[in-house]
Amino acid sequence: MADKFDVIVIGAGPGGYVAAIRAAQLGLKTACVEKWIGKEGNVVHGGTCLNVGCIPSKALLEASHKFVEAQHDFDDIGIQTGDVKMDVTKMMARKDKIVKNLTGGIAGLFKANGVTALEGAGKVLSSKQVEVSKDGDKAVYEADNIVIASGSVPVEIPPTPLTEGLIVDSTGALEFDETPKRLGVIGAGVIGLELGSVWSRLGSDVTVLEAMDSFLPMVDSAIAKETQKLLKKQGLDIKLGARVTGSETNGKEVTVKYTDAKGEQEQVFDKLIVCVGRRPYTQGLLGDDAGVKLDERGFIFVDDHCRTSVPGVYAIGDCVRGPMLAHKASEEGIMVADIIAGHKAEMNYDAIPSVIYTFPEVAWVGMTEQDAKAAGIEVKTGAFPFAASGRAMANNATEGMAKVITDAETDRILGMHIVGQHAGELIAQGVIAMEFGSSAEDLALTCYAHPTMSEAVHEAALAVEGHAIHMANRKRK
Predict the structure, then answer these.
(1) What is the pLDDT of residues 280-323, one digit of tens each?
(2) Is 351-463 the same fold as 4-154+279-347?
(3) How many Cα atoms sit within 13 Å of 441 on the Cβ side?
(4) According to the annotation, is 210 in a ligand binding site?
(5) Mean pLDDT of 127-153
(6) What are the structural domain ranges in the chain?
(7) Percent of the chain with pLDDT over 70
(8) Choosing from 45, 343, 450, 458, which is the catalytic residue?
(9) Which CATH class, in words, describes the domain spanning 4-154+279-347?
(10) Is 450 noted as a catalytic residue in this protein?
(11) What further note is attached to this protein's record (predicted)?
């Protein structure tokens, strides 16, 4: 029998590695199991987020945005650039370097905090034992507590089976060695819009096929409408109500068949990205006698504190209920480690921000206006366009708006939705406000630095009562 640990974490993604480090910081003997094999053939940490998700996609989004700025926007502010070209190979190499630096950094953090890194596939057995297998070798470890952080994988759909180099998932879309002329994207969600934006900026003719009739239904309708308009202006052809029914490949291109309001359609692409969501990854994770229960969708069943059906066994991140977001997983990891160490810990699931890293960015937290009304809550809202922001004008980034949603009776902030430059940074104001139970008046009475993009949030809060300073034709409600 191998060593016994206070805590064994299965999975070293943003939920798992954070849980392991926090547990070790709290004085618990901790191990973290990971099987992800990197490009160089060694086990790497960071999970989907660092290896093939959040980080590499943001590297490509930033590079492609700067390319577009240099091509089209620099001239507006007086910068002459001449003929600008993108070296896709170099862009990809930079992305890989960033990933390598960050994944290697986690290994350093493990060492600095005394976390034991176990390489291989982890399986939960009975009596809080964990089997770790690698290359045919197996070892069993005992733990007082187990934290499952196994993450998720892309969903595949029967009409478009993955075909190497032609029909790919989000991982494959991060590895193109050249810009496809005609690119199809199935799914107008966060991942589809981000990856579609990257390759559209680099010259692809991008068509996004979305089965739902509404665009970004999880976002406030006013913000979603503005976002759709801006992305269409950038060249993304977003087809709503387009349900994919089949595909054919001939080695160099793929023909996609779909139905929409006009009937049966088909379109030919050089590459096709399938981005229809993700599912929890639990393959080979649970032994027959583990006792951990799954719900009807394959997620590990947990309570509000991420406890599974087995005492001492927890699960966090993408493999449990809630939004599949790296920061949500990390916060759950911290909560669980604190609970294991005997501390009181809670997580506010009503104040988890979401961001789409297109340009402009889209970010939101809390309820939409539609959510609140559906729940029978009378609301007041305030909105402010970046077109009226001095800093946005100076930044050459006047597209979008900020919107604040409040309870009409109490003025408590129920949600904040933003589309605009740096929306992912600005939304933190809404998260903090909701975490402290703030009212719109609290934000309205706050002194904001001038000139900043943040002032749009200030003005939106003022607008709830009709007091926005830099908008005409506003009357006090």
Answers:
(1) 999 999 999 999 999 999 999 999 999 999 999 999 999 999 99
(2) no
(3) 6
(4) yes
(5) 97
(6) 4-154+279-347, 167-276, 351-463
(7) 99
(8) 450
(9) alpha beta
(10) yes
(11) The active site is a redox-active disulfide bond.
